[in-house]
Design goal:
Helix content is 13%, strand content 46%. It is mainly beta and 319 residues long. The strands form four sheets. Strands 1, 2, 3, 4, 5, 6, 7, 13, 14, 18, 19, 20 and 21 form a 13-stranded mixed beta sheet that branches. It has a three-stranded mixed beta sheet with strand order 9-12-11, covered by helices on one side. The protein is flat, with a radius of gyration of 22 Å.
Length: 319
């Protein structure tokens, strides 16, 4: 039997009791988040804990099995976003460094601007961040009006389909599946507790993507890519007229739709440690033809007195 252990600090305060903590990490979400739930009965009054922590306090969360505190892996680092005490327990909601992007930017209009130059402008104004961007996408015009840094990131993410996330103080912007982490093996007979995976055949997953942009005069520029006879879908990108950019957007959309392999999620334990961008090899002795390697899109890690688990959502099969 594994012994559960945790080390959570909020500001200068270290938690000594815990009901549960849930950490959600994803390359498809702008922010990694954590929800720390404390048993209200462990404190005389909710205000006792509220007097020791506040919104904006730095948070570090570590947990795991059979380890001394200093050896526990860091699962989350960020800031207190809000504190709720209205349901009999105390919930502390946290965000990663994206919390610092929720600051107002100066109104401006950037013409003929790439995503890289746009985000360099944003982090230069916010200060304290670096950019790692290899995503090629161009706007004819990008207007920042009464917007925060977070608002800009959200718009870019929605329109480009790029993976946008923070690692520490570095903002990452990459094509889907471009950046990969470590390799991990998960076996249906060994370390997968619950599966919500479905196996799909690419022969039955044909798509045709049409991406429509518009130039400064309102003229529509259209790009179509995909497999003849496939299901058709259309996306519109106002203010984008560069044909190469529209083609790239179509390719990104097809990446996540057309392949033979599993889709969905599975749940295992805290070991092996799995994080977004990792490559997980799924093995099934009963169906060896289904064995394959998949890009990890998101991981929801839960730690509580009853045990620990990770729910892993996979993206496209890559090997």
């Amino acid at each position: 039997m594994f012994a559960m252990n945790f080390d959570i600090t909020i500001g200068t305060f270290r938690l000594t009791t815990l009901e549960s903590v849930v950490v959600t990490c994803s390359v498809e979400n702008l922010a990694d988040t954590a929800t720390i739930t404390l048993p209200g009965a462990a404190y005389n009054r909710a205000l006792e804990i509220e007097s020791k922590i506040k919104e904006g306090d730095a948070v570090r969360i570590r947990f795991g099995y059979d380890a001394h505190l200093q050896e526990l892996p860091v699962e989350f680092e960020g800031y207190v976003e809000s504190i709720a005490t209205d349901d009999g327990s105390i919930k502390i909601n946290c965000e990663d460094e994206i919390y610092k992007f929720r600051k107002d930017l100066k109104n401006t209009v950037l013409s003929s601007v790439s995503v890289k130059v746009l985000l360099q402008h944003v982090i230069r104004e916010l200060g304290g961040f670096e950019l790692s961007c290899d995503y090629d996408f161009k706007y004819d015009k990008f207007t920042i009006y009464e917007a925060t840094g977070f608002d800009v990131l959200k718009k870019v993410q929605e329109e480009t389909r790029a993976n946008i996330y923070l690692k520490g103080k570095t903002l990452h912007v990459h094509p889907q599946y471009a950046e990969t982490g470590k390799n991990v093996i998960c076996d249906f007979a060994v370390n997968i507790e619950k599966s919500e995976l479905k196996y799909k055949d690419a022969r039955k997953r044909k798509f045709i993507a049409t991406i429509e942009g518009t130039d400064a005069k309102g003229k529509t520029i259209k790009v179509t890519k995909g497999t003849p006879g496939g299901d058709k879908f259309t996306l519109k990108l106002p203010g984008v007229s560069d044909k190469a950019t529209l083609e790239r957007r179509a390719e990104e959309e097809l990446k996540i739709r057309a392949y033979s392999g599993y889709e969905g999620s599975f749940t295992g334990w805290l070991l092996p440690h799995i994080a977004p961008t990792d490559i997980v090899e799924l093995r099934d002795a009963d169906y060896e033809y289904k064995t394959g390697k998949y890009y990890v899109v998101s991981v929801v890690s839960t730690f509580a007195a009853g045990g620990g688990s990770r729910k892993v959502t996979i993206g496209k099969k890559i090997g």
